[in-house]
Amino acid sequence: xxxxxxxxxxxxxxxxxxxxxxxxxxxxxxxxxxxxxxxxxxxxxxxxxxxxxxxxxxxxxxxxxxxxxxxxxxxxxxxxxxxxxxxxxxxxxxxxxxxxxxxxxxxxxxxxxxxxxxxxxxxxxxxxxxxxxxxxxxxxxxxxxxxxxxxxxxxxxxxxxxxxxxxxxxxxxxxxxxxxxxxxxxxxxxxxxxxxx
Length: 197
Description:
Number of domains: 2
Protein name: TonB C-terminal domain-containing protein
Number of helices: 5
Organism: Elizabethkingia anophelis NUHP1
């Protein structure tokens, strides 16, 4: 059965199926075409269809969710990639990732002042930026920062350390929400990028 897991919960899912007297084996999709047939016999797809007809799609969806929850609880101290988590906004002031990006930029620049000798970008030049990578813990604390700046105009390189420190301090000052996987708070990787003129 192919049930596309974002995280490796296949063992838990397989165990749940076994409890329901269903054997599970991961298979690559292969289709066989016979000479006198007008369609392909795709066995994994056909098996999934037959099982869903017999047990119902909600049955498998609920087992998949339960399997993922079991996996997360078994690995409660792991750090999960941002992409496998349910909740995309991580700040308490925003509801989605686009709103989060805009709000982070706006709030940062409400107190940030460009140094007098900073050379701003011209026309279609790329934006300079500072990115900080970190971990948001289940309790909402941020830690393990790695920060770097990419400054387009080399005259601005003298500000790299101060920009890194400024962005890192800003990110540390925010109230973070832990990521969720199927409603369970988890530790997750996160990054924030601030773009400069």
